[in-house]
């Protein structure tokens, strides 16, 4: 066990994601990972006192798990400068997509970065394990990989074995927002959350509610005829 990989519950898979990289990285993308990412990276030690790392004592702390292309995360960061926002993603191409929106080419080392954003380019479960207990005010899980095959169900982030880890990090009354366009995952979320002792389902919407920025995955789903569902769960 290392400082950034606390133990997980027995039976929990060692990872929930597939590939870390898609197509080969272009030179600009590699510079973003080598130069810009370290400027925003939240370290495991900093995660133990994240608001100090942000220099935002007393601020609300939000976490997005698997930010994909970064559209939702960056919209939230811009709309809520008073909130300390951690965005987690292991897929390198997704990291590059977000970073490329922040700095112009040639300014990877010097371009201004949002002061209320930090990145966690590792498994988000390990971050949940080191954050202060009840330290999160809001958690986002937007269009996660549904792992639709039954044998892969254990890799779904919404899973009974992972709910205690989420409950530990999210304060009582804190909000967990979930969105999915996959019918199998939609049924799974409702089944799992209906049995979750630490959470209560507050709302279920078929249209994106106000204050929920769109993502490329949502747009693709609608183009292809899939209907997203949006849930708000509250920590008891």
Structural class: alpha/beta
CATH level-1 class: Alpha Beta
- Which H/E pattern describes the elements? HHHEHEHEHEHEHEHE
Poorly predicted ranges:
6-11
Beta percentage is 15-25%
> CATH superfamily assignment?
Vaccinia Virus protein VP39
Tally of structural domains: 1
* CATH architecture field: 3-Layer(aba) Sandwich
Basic shape: globular
Largest sheet: 7 strands, mixed
In total, the number of strands is: 7
Helical coverage, percent range: 25-40%
Q: What's the assembly state of these chains?
A: single chain
Q: In whole angstroms, how far apart are the ends?
A: 31 Å
Number of alpha- plus pi-helical segments = 9
Identify the strand order in the major beta sheet: 3-2-1-4-5-7-6
CATH fold-level name: Rossmann fold
Q: What does this entry show, briefly?
A:
With 236 residues, this protein is an alpha/beta fold. It has a single domain, classed as Rossmann fold.
């Amino acid at each position: 066990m290392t400082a950034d990989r606390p133990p997980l519950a027995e039976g929990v898979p060692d990872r929930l994601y597939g590939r870390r990289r898609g197509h080969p990285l272009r030179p600009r993308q590699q510079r973003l990972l080598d130069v810009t990412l370290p400027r925003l990276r939240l370290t495991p030690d900093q995660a133990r006192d994240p608001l100090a790392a942000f220099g935002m004592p007393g601020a609300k702390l939000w976490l997005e798990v698997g930010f994909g292309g970064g559209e939702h995360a960056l919209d939230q960061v811009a709309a809520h400068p008073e909130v300390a926002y951690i965005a987690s993603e292991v897929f390198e191409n997704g990291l590059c997509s977000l970073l490329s929106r922040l700095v112009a080419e040639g300014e990877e080392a010097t371009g201004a970065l949002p002061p209320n954003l930090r990145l966690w380019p590792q498994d988000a479960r390990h971050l949940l394990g080191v954050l202060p207990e009840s330290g999160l005010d809001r958690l986002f899980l937007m269009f996660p990989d549904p792992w639709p095959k039954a044998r892969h169900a254990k890799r779904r982030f919404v899973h009974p074995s992972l709910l205690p880890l989420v409950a530990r990090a999210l304060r009582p009354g804190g909000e967990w927002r979930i969105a999915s366009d996959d019918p199998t995952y939609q049924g799974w979320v409702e089944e799992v959350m209906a049995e979750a002792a630490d959470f209560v389902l507050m709302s279920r919407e078929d249209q994106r509610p106000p204050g929920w920025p769109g993502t490329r995955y949502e747009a693709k789903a609608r183009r292809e005829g899939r209907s997203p569902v949006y849930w708000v769960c509250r920590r008891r």
